[in-house]
Amino acid sequence: MLTRPWTLHILWALSTNGPMRFGVLRRQVEGISARVLTERLRTLESERFVFRHYEQTIPPAVTYGITERMKDIEKVLGQLEALARKWQGEGTVVGSGRGTAARTGASA
Question: What is residue 64's DSSP assignment?
């Protein structure tokens, strides 16, 4: 579930920015459609990584945030971000599907 497209990006946005309404979260996760964001939030809520707070106003106000369960893996996300920034700084191509030779410039 955490490896599905957009899921970690959503969790990272909520983790670093705090609870957000749907529209604000959608702007934070550039490129995601409303349908996919809704699906991912529902899944994350059912797995207890995200909470959903509904206020019966006009228009309804729905806020999403991370749960205590999610806070347990925040440290791991921070480590992944640090590694990604390190690799980006080194000019490493991640996810090219070509193996180490493509990333280092060495011939296979």
Answer: E
